[in-house]
Every structure is written in structure tokens, then in C-alpha cells.
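QA checklist item 7 of 12: single-chain prediction sanity check.
[x] sequence parsed
[x] length recorded as 381
[x] structure emitted
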Amino acid sequence: MEADTLLLSTGGQLTGKVREVESKKTPYVLVQVDQDLSVAIAKANSRMIVGDEKLQEYRRRVVEAGQDGQAHYELATWCRQNNLLQQRQYHLLRTIDLLPDHPNARAALGYTRKDGKWILTEVWRRNQGLVKDRKGQWVLPEVVAWRENADVNDKVAKRWIKTIKQLLSKIQRGDAEAMAEMAAIGDPLASQAIAKELVDSQKRGSNWRPVRMVWLNKLKEFRTGAAVEAIVKTGLLDTDDVVREDALAWLQSNETSSAIATYMPWLKSNNPKQVKAAARALAYFPNPEAAFVYIDALITIEKQTQQVGGGSRAGFDNAGGGGFSQGSKQVVVNTPHRHPEVLQLLRSIAPDVDFGYDKSAWKNYFAELRSPPRSDLRRDS
């Protein structure tokens, strides 16, 4: 009888005639050990089937390896290539028994060299106070705790999204208790949900003002990253003057740098509406150091691509055939825009002068202010 070897996931093995059986309930492997005995092993508990030829090759290599450490390492490599994992482990151990400083065998077994001694990497990492995270990476216990806490916080934040929407639905039906409940929220983890509602409702109109002011005040109270980001956006783009100016007044006292960092780049926009919005918001944060940026934004050029032409024309080819074609092309149209909001911003930092939209005059004025005082270098002879 031909003999194969079935390697078990538990580490053992069975030798005999091996046959795989596909069953709807539990697929299994049947090993006929001899004429009178067959053993069924669930496929889930088997690792692989090794043919007799492979085992004979393995046994031959074992004899050849003898007491040669390098030969055992090469045999371990062969075992890995042939999925004989238990045998690989054995020959790696034999390698370091015979050659204690074999670097590749040591590395394969999980050792590292520290202070001239071999130590299991896992032991060394644990001695450093590290633990493995979910991905098998060695990190500080505090990192694991922080990640677990972050996961919990993320779940709570997502629950707040649902809760805020439910309360809003009740408020829209005139439920005063729901409004009071919204105002009483004290969990900063609700910031993300409230911030989204505040930003998404920017064009809802004054009817939404009461609940939006509640949201704005909650975000001021929480002052998380998501909260500040939403307040900054509100100060820039909100169509409700009351809500927008309230946001800007708070930013002026509490988050000046966040606001300026967001608003200044908008002065360089190709979109005149964005330039207007930025200048309007920056009026709360006038900065003489930004004078030349303001000047450049006094008049901006809006570039738009337009289709021109389109008239029909007749044409004839060399064979006498004729036809009509449409002639059109795309051109870039530059439209200048003056920005009174930017001019007002310049006047706020230079109240004693007014050069209107004359960029050169404004630049000369501020350049003169920044120039060092002139001194009379003439000496009496």
C-alpha cells in the first residue's frame, strides 16, 4: 500500500493511504493506516498531505546533514520551501546547537543580539516595557490604552450623530423640551455631530437661527478641534449675519491664529465671492504686517473660459465636393473685480490715508513706513 503522511494542525502526523472526502456537513480526510484501520480527521484539523517521495527525500537529507550546523540550516530552508514547518523548527534548533552564533538561524527563531548576548526578541521587548498591539507591533502600553479609548470615543461620537438628528426633528415640530435638551448637552464627544449640523445648515435662513445659536454656543464651550474648525467656517461663509458675526467675535477673542490661517489664503482666490468673504471676516483681525497681501487683493482678476465663434462657413475640397463647418474656439476671459471690503480693511490699518484702488500708491506708502529713517551723512569739513 502506498503511504502518505498527513500532518495535523496539532503537531502530530498519521501515515497511510490518504483520501480527501468532501462532505456537506464537515469535510474530512480519511487515512487508511492498515487493512483493518482507517482514521477520519476533520479537514480543519489537518495541515497538509506529504507524499512518500518527499518524506524519503527528507530522511535522506537528515542523514547527510549529520553534525554539520550549516547543513542543518540549509535543510531547515528546504523544509520551509516544502511546508514541513515542524521539521524546519527542529533543524533551526539543531543549527544553533551546533553553531550558537549562526545569525540567520537565530533570526529565524526570533532572537536578537544585545550587549553581545542572544536574547529572544519578544523577551527583550517585554523587558523594555512594550506590549504587542492588535497588528502585532510592539508599542507602549499607553499607546494601546489610547487606541482602545479612541475606539470607544469614536463609537460614542457616532451615537451622538443619531441623537442630534432625533432632537432636531423634535425641535422642528416645536418641541421646547428637545431644545432645552440640546442646550444641556455637556459631552465634548458631541462636537463632531453638532459641528456638521452647524456647517451644513449655513444657508437655512433666519428661521433656523435659534437652534443654530445653540449649536454655536455648544461648540464654543467644547472648543475641540472639530468645534473650532466649524466656528471658523461659520465666520467665513455663513449667510446669517447674526450667527456669522457672533462666531467671528468669539474667534477674535479665543482663536485668532486659527481664523487668520484659514482666511488669508482666500484673499488670493480667483473667485471674487471668496475674496469678499475673506476680507469681511478679516475685518475682525486687522494686521498691518499683512498690508501687501491686502493691497494685492484690492483688485483681483477672475479668469473664465468661454466658447466663442460658432458661425457656419462653406468649404470645397479638390475633388469638387463641398460642405459646411462650425468654427469655434475656447478663450480665457479676464474680468477685473474691485473689492470694497478689502479697501475697508486697508483703511482700518492706515486710517490717516486713502488711496482708493491705487495699488502702487498703497505699496509706496507702506514701503515708506517700513523704510529705516534717513540720516544726514554729510560731515562738516
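[x] summary fact logged: The longest strand covers residues 299-316.
[ ] second reviewer sign-off
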